[in-house]
Each structure stands twice: as structure tokens, then as C-alpha cells.
Amino acid sequence: MATYTEHEVTYAGGKKIHYLAAGPVNGPLVLFIHGWPATAITWRHQLDAFAAVGFRAVAPDMPGYGQSTSRRLLDDYCQEALVEGMMALLADTGRKAAVWVGHDWGSGVTSSVAIQHPETVKALVSICVPYSTLELGWDQFLPLVNRDIYPEDEYEFGQWDYMRRYEEEFEEAVAWCNKDIAGYCNALMQKPGARPDRTLPAHTAKVRREGPLGGREKPPSVDMTGPPMLPAEVWDSFIKDMERTGFWTGCAYYMHHQRNAEYNGKKDRRLKQPVLFVHATWDLVCDTKTSRLIEPMREACSDLTEVTLDASHWVPFEKPRELNAALFRFIVNSLPSEWPGFWDSGYTTRKSDL
Q1: Where are the beta strands (DSSP E) in the chain?
Q2: Where is the AB hydrolase-1 domain (predicted)?
């Protein structure tokens, strides 16, 4: 396990981002940006692996999470405000650019960084949520729903129905999540047992009609679902942080689709940098295997690599070795100058006909 140092950067009149760093200070910089719900420590597998080979690996508690500022102000969680925080984070590392790795809403944020500040992105990695989708609001990603599975007359918002509920009943939706924070997080983060039938609607498509998790009055307790997917010490730290902030601030990310579209929609979204997308076979919500959700990313990225992992949505801690291997291979193949020691290792190759 790597040795972590804790840091804090203040920006925008007093807001703070807390972050973890591991690996040599002068190593190539990789920023790991988590989604909903998670914290910096949930990237532990990646921080350890990248630090061990010489990268400077950094993971923040995103605004609204962990030890970062978690004000109950909706304006703090639009993409414009989040990108401002990411620029403060990058500046605090002393670098002008990095490899950005995002998962879930973290992919939405890193995509916004790439749109707004492409000069800060040496390479972009999006896990589960493709570039040029979530950060552009409903009008961009809703038309990509697979209507064979989600007929529009029955499932207007497809598998994204739960997002619409936040817009219609935000306080009620958050209050339900907060009834048992540990239980809800554990229910979310379960490895799929029997492989789900991908021809059937995801449970998230019925949230406004039935309520979350099939209409339960509150989330199931931890002992009702199964062992946490995260290592025990990571789980305990993560849940402690989530119980401190609750779900209000993390769920506020869902409240800005129109505003995010206005912020990002007028920019040139074509990317020339190396880009990696990680598909998760059994992610039925961020479905890139049977829907057209990946298409805008393919159209926008001129140097795109794709890899598919046999995992659910929680790829970073369900399949950490496979994900780390994919990330390492991508950097070596597509951006070798960012591999530690590339310039000074004296690496040579000799071939002969012997």
C-alpha cells in the first residue's frame, strides 16, 4: 500500500478541495476523479498501483463529498463550478496538464475539463460514462436511449428516470437516500450475481412510478444485501465521510442539465488527445453495449481506444487489476512520454535474425 499525503486547496472565495496524493512528487501526473457516490479513498487500488510504478497519483474528494466543501447550495455543483475546482486542484499540484481519469459523474466533470480547458488534458480516460454525453444535458444523451428496451410511451426517460425524479422531487429523493446511508451505498455497490437480462428495463427506469429499489420505504440495511465490494478499511472511511455529508450535495450534481448544456454546448468538442473509454458489460444504466450512448464520443475523438471489462458500473473497485492493466497499456501505447522513466531509463531494444 502506498503512502498517502493529504492536501487542501482553497479557491473561489473560501471553498476547499481535499485530496490524496501518492507517488513521487515529480512523477507523471494522473488525476482520478470519482463520481456518485464515492470519495478519494475509493480510488485506493489505482493510487497504490500508479504510485508503485512512479506516477504522481492524485484523487480529490469532489465538491460535496468527504472533507471537501459540502455546502447545501445548488450552484456549487453545476459543471462550471466543478471545473473551477478542478483547475484549482491542478494548479495546486504545480502542473499545467495531466492525464485525467473519471468515473460516473467524474467522467462528466473530466469531459467538461476537456471541453473548457483542452490544454490541461494530456489524455482523457472515461469509465462507464462516455465523453460528450452527460456534461451536455438531457438533449444530448436522452435521444441515445435504446427504445427497444425502453419504449418512449412507457419509459419517457429510459433508464435515466431516476435523474428526472431529482428534478421533480429533490428533497424527497435525498431524504430517502439518507434514511440508511451505509445500507444504500452497499446496495448500490454489489457485484452482479446471476448475470442480468439486458433485454429488460433497469430498475432505475421505474423510480418515479414505483420509488427507488422497487418501492422500498428505506434502503436495505448492510446485512440484508451482502459484503461491501470495497476493502474493509476503505469502506469504513468512505461511509464515515458519506454519513458526514449525507446525499444532498452529491445528488445536487443531477440538478443542472440545462445549465451544463449551456456551459458546454457552444464549445468545440473535438478532441485530438489520446482518449480511452472503458465499457462495463453489465452496467445497465450507463449502457454503452446495447444503446448508442458511445456514438457522440466516437464522433468527437480522433484518437480513441476502447476496452470492455466484464464488470458492473463499479469498475474501479470491482475489477481493479483489469482496469489498472487497461490504463497502463493505454498510456504505454498512446502516450509513452507520460510513462515514468521514459526519457532517462536507457531502455533499448535489439533484434537479430539468430
Answers
A1: 5-11, 15-22, 29-33, 56-60, 98-103, 121-127, 275-280, 304-309
A2: 28-146
Reduce the DSSP state of residue 24 to 3 states and report it. coil
- Around 167, how many Cα atoms within 13 Å sit in the side-chain half-sphere? 14
Mean pLDDT score across all residues of the chain: 95
Distance, CA of 301 to CA of 111 (rounded, Å): 12
pLDDT in tens, 222-258: 999 999 999 999 999 999 999 999 999 999 999 999 9
Q: What is d(CA 92, CA 4) in angstroms, rounded to the nearest whole number?
A: 16
Count Cβ neighbours within 10 Å for each residue of 41-65 and write b for 16 or more, e otherwise.
bbbbbbbbbbbeeebbbbbbbbbbb
Dist. CA 85–CA 67, nearest whole Å: 14
Cell numbers representing residue 55 in the block = 506516477
Tell me the percentage of the chain whose pLDDT exceeds 70: 97
CA 184-313-169 angle, 5° bins: 45
Q: Which residues contact 9 (CB under 8 A, 6 or more apart)?
A: 16, 17, 19, 88, 89, 91, 92
pLDDT, tens only, 15-30? 999 999 999 999 999 9
CATH of the domain at 55: 3.40.50.1820
Cβ contact 67:59 at 8 Å:
no
- Other CB atoms within 10 A of residue 300 CB: 19
Ramachandran quadrant class, 214 (left: phi over 0; alpha: psi -120 to 50; beta: rest): left
- Where do we find the cell 458526514? 244
Q: Which residue range forms the structural domain that includes residue 88?
A: 5-338
Q: Do residues 127 and 316 lie in contact, with contact meaning Cβ atoms separated by under 8 Å? A: yes
Q: Residue 30 in contact with residue 40, Cβ under 8 Å?
A: no
Could you tell me which residues come within 8 angstroms of residue 122 by beta carbon, excluding any fewer than 6 positions away? 97, 98, 99, 273, 274, 335, 338
> 161 lies in a domain?
yes
Per the structure, the count of domains in the chain is: 1
